[in-house]
User: Fold this.
Amino acid sequence: MKNLTPLRSLRKGCLHCMGENYNQVEACHLDACPLHPLRLGRKPKSSNGKKLLTTVKSIKAHCLECSAFNKAEVRNCNIPDCVLYPFRMGKNPNIKNRKGNREALRNYSFLPKNKSVQAISVHN
Ligand code: SF4
Ligand code: SF4
Assistant:
């Protein structure tokens, strides 16, 4: 059973954006999108001199764009089915004692329902 990490969430978000088409995600040339450098589900080898955001900060930036740069809109996002939702505030609920939406993580079918989310390993 796979766990939802920020990087996996981001990757799934990009796949959803491109109709689940891996090739289209790879070919995406919208490099202004905050998810772009991490869209392939791995950290890029080179940043071309740009400062790269962490995975959760990339998701947060994307969510802000999605919500017209209104933080309250992001916090109150009413689309919990969005795979980015658990990480939308720039926090990783997989990390113990880190604020974030642990309940949202549990809603993903590929998470073990009977397992504490805190016990999930973090490797993003
Ligand atoms: S980087 Fe942005 S535009 Fe490109 S596939 Fe991902 S979400 Fe869509
Ligand atoms: S979690 Fe909400 S704010 Fe973030 S991308 Fe999804 S729908 Fe938009």
Summary: The helical segments are 6-17, 22-27, 55-66, 71-75, 102-106. The pocket of iron/sulfur cluster (ligand 2) is lined by residues 62-63, 66-67, 74, 77, 79, 82, 84-85, 88 (CB under 6 Å).
